[in-house]
Amino acid sequence: MQWTSLQNVAPGLTNLLAYERSWLKPDIRAGLSVAAVALPVAIAYAELAGVSAIVGLYSCILPMIAYAIFGSSRQLIVGPDAATCAVIAAVVTPLAAGNTELHWQLTIVMTLMMGTWCLIASRFRLGAIADLLSRPILNGLLNGVALTIIVNQISKVLGYTSPSSELIERILALPENLLSSHWPTMGISLLTLLILLGVHYARPNWPAPLFAVVLTTALAWAANLPRFGIETVSGYTGGGLPMVSWPDFKPGLLRDLVIPALNLAVVSFVSMMLTARSFAAKNGYEVDAD
């Protein structure tokens, strides 16, 4: 009975307790491969969400540890992705109104709300909701998010400042903004793209994002690229977890986050379940939606 209860609460932990020594070597290789790709991408996701790079690193590491204990999929990787970060930024940025500290606080609160919604759904066995949303609906949503990400990030890739935060206005202003692009920034962006494509085609099994980050970081340090007006990742230089203070947080903003957090929880859950079920079907086991 105790083993069954443990398996229901922490199925990943039960798998760890029955871990076979022969799995260790391939698991180490898999872990290194995932880390090589996930860590540099996490920095990009942090930028997308409007928080510091260190936040992206921790949000990449800690959820994986938690899911290894409480999750039921053996292949699923849990952490921030482009869709969730883009949605969080779209909701939080207007509320923060340029206040960096408030942006950070609202991001934390929205994330906690999303987790709370997921816990409530699990408590009431609402995992069947994954059967109600089809792949085309999810693909349509993700394609819309992808378009939003491209439009919002192109100013950083080309090195110009967009005065508007609205998607349509940014698209309409794109031809004019292209004329004010920052050429050194554009050059680094192009170099990064070439590294990604080159590594991908020359060595498909190598972690292209890691190579791109390492090489361009080394170039930025060696050539002192900030002197050419190229912005670099900054904002946190200490060790340990990033600290948060709450002096200016307005509790009234909570009501503006409740429904967006619920929507994000549903979308993230359905996307995760579609992926987890595909892996489970391929490898001959079942995942618990709750």
TrEMBL record:
Keywords: Membrane, Transmembrane, Transmembrane helix. It holds the Pfam family Sulfate_transp. It comes from the Eukaryota. It is found in: Membrane. Residues 24-290 form the SLC26A/SulP transporter domain. One of its GO terms (cellular component) is membrane. One of its GO terms (biological process) is transmembrane transport. It is a multi-pass membrane protein. The chain crosses the membrane at residues 28-45, 51-70, 77-96, 102-120, 141-161, 181-199, 206-223, 257-276. The keyword Glycoprotein does not apply. The keyword Nucleotide-binding does not apply. This is SLC26A/SulP transporter domain-containing protein. It comes from Anopheles maculatus.
